[in-house]
């Protein structure tokens, strides 16, 4: 038996439909800036399983995984230079932001403990 959310919960910012979509798995950009073309087989955008051979990091993708009625995962798309470059840049920016957050947290801990870490 499924339960629906009460009206107050449906307006919650934590509800799944109120969450911001993450970046594209192929080009690393958010939905408004995504440069990925539409897949001619399934009509999707930015699905790494529509692309041949490898993911953006160069890791071979398992092509034996069944993707519904479309059979094997690869739909024959190839990543463009722009997709690869944008993905690499987004990964670099994420790494820099994580390093900044971690250093700020260490500084915060140092200040809170008055240097007794």
Task: Please give a structural write-up.
The protein is built from two helices and no strands. It has a domain at 22-90. The termini are far apart. The longest helix has 32 residues, at 81-112. It is mostly helical. Helices cover 31% and strands 0% of the residues.
**Structure summary, number of beta strands:** 0
Largest sheet: none
The share of residues in extended strands comes to under 5%
How confident overall, as mean pLDDT?
75
- Summing up helix and strand content along with how strands pair, one would put the structural category as mainly alpha
If you compute it from the alpha carbons, what radius of gyration comes out, rounded to the nearest whole angstrom?
Answer: 20 Å
Cα end-to-end separation: 52 Å
- What is the helix/strand order? HH
Question: Fraction of residues in helices?
Answer: 25-40%
Uncertain runs are 66-71
What is the overall silhouette? flat
Number of H/I helices:
2
Write the layout of secondary structure elements.
Elements: H1 7-10, H2 81-112
Describe, in short, the structure shown.
The protein is mainly alpha-helical. The protein is 31% helix and 0% strand. It has a domain at 22-90.
For the structure shown, list the relevant keywords:
single chain; 117 residues; mainly alpha
